[in-house]
Specification:
alpha/beta; Rossmann fold; 4 strands; about 50% helix; about 10% strand
């Protein structure tokens, strides 16, 4: 089971340099094994809104939740203490600590292009690292 960081979803949505790698990963892993945090979901909405790409956001929602079976996970207020501890222990900013803590709380492998996660015990996987 995989928690995909915001940068993984945006790489594909914005058709950036590693979009093909993400596309291959998404095509080979069943959507019911994929997770996204509420934080990522909202961040993607903010970013696509600023870029004037709300139709892409609507398509994203449809792909993940209507046509697919991606699960949204969230941290509750009590879990925020773990988030703050992760920020301090591993020198993560808030959004990275949110992803790290959610992955730990839900026992998910974190998939990200962000090397900051290499400072954490669980590390990170990149889409190309995952066996199909």
């Amino acid at each position: 089971m995989y928690l995909l960081d915001t940068n993984i979803w945006l790489e594909r949505l914005l058709d950036q340099g590693r979009s093909g790698e993400v596309d291959t990963f998404l095509s080979s892993v069943p959507s019911d094994r994929l997770f996204i945090t509420d934080f990522s979901l909202h961040s993607i909405g903010v970013i696509l809104g600023r870029l004037g790409c709300m139709p892409a956001f609507c398509g994203f929602i449809e792909d993940l939740f209507i046509d697919g079976s991606v699960t949204v996970v969230a941290l509750n207020p009590v879990q925020m203490r773990c988030l703050v501890e992760a920020m301090e222990l591993y020198r993560l900013d808030f959004d990275d600590a949110y992803q790290y803590t959610a992955a730990a709380e839900y026992n998910l492998a974190l998939v990200s292009f962000d090397s900051d996660f290499e400072r954490t015990p669980g590390g990170r996987l990149m889409p190309a690292d995952i066996e199909r």
